[in-house]
Amino acid sequence: MAPFRLRDLPGELRNNIYSKTPLSDKMTLLRTSRSINSEVSPFFYEEATYRIFVNVHHPSLYTKHPITRPPLQHIKEKIQNLDVYWALFEPEKRKEGDIEALSWDPLISRGLCRVFFGWCPGVPWLPVPFRDSDFEPLKTLAGFETVEIRVGLKALGRPHNHHAPKTNTGNTCTDSDTSCPMMLPMYDVLRNGLESAFGVAELRQNPPDHYLRFEPGKHLADAVVKS
Q: What is d(CA 176, CA 116) in angstroms, rounded to the nearest whole number?
């Protein structure tokens, strides 16, 4: 009996198989051959989420998630979904390459990008720790159909409430609560800094989860129609 070869199946059937293959198995198929890699890649990157860490330099804080530098260009062009974990502390402590990780081609259409801002253990909480220069790399995310931004008191590696601010009622905001009233000024700053590139933002309020939702894809489509 002749050996079974995946490539002998009709293309439509192969695509049906790829679409139902678990993500881990898709990753294995990417390594089999160039021809299979080219067929599986669109299905893999449509499902996979790439992680990037900004301002992260202490491996003990992030034992489960190693520091991620910018992906190779040929991979970067294929990425559809992105999670950005941005540790908040003094801007002058950033290292070369951090912001480079956020230099994306806004002309490439992509899927969902989620940006998570949080504090590193031992770093004092700051009311608005963003600079104008922070918005330039964030604006390169305009190629994503949807961008969600969360600002929370939870450290990106482990729980942290040593410097959690108090609300006007005297209660301390919890680590994981992105809906803490003290976060609202930061959401306003992010909204004002990014709406020119992403379009109008909506503050989704589903306690304990609050986040800004932009739809750059729709904003771009509307701009094209108006022109």
A: 12
Alpha-carbon gap, residue 149 to 49, rounded angstroms: 16
Q: Determine the pLDDT at residue 74.
A: 82
Instruction: Assign 227 to helix, strand or coil.
Output: coil
| This prediction's pTM | 0.79
pLDDT single digits (tens) 166-197:
434 344 444 445 556 667 788 888 999 999 99
Cα-only R_g, the chain: 20
What is the per-residue pLDDT for 196?
92
Cα 64 → chain centroid = 17
β-pair partners for 83: 51, 114
Residues whose CB falls within 8 Å of the CB of residue 107, separated by 6 or more in sequence, listed in order: 143
Q: 184: which 2 tokens?
A: 């609202």
Say which DSSP state 226 is in: H
Q: Rounded to whole angstroms, how far apart are CA atoms 113 and 169?
A: 34
CA distance 19 to 43: 6
- Rounded to 5 degrees, what angle do the CA atoms 151, 65, 52 make? 60
Q: How far apart are CA 107 and CA 172, in angstroms?
A: 43
The amino acid occupying position 212 is L
| Confidence at residue 166, expressed as pLDDT on a 0 to 100 scale | 40
Residue 193 amino acid letter:
G
Residue type, 161: N
Residues paired with residue 204 on neighbouring β-strands, in sequence order: 211
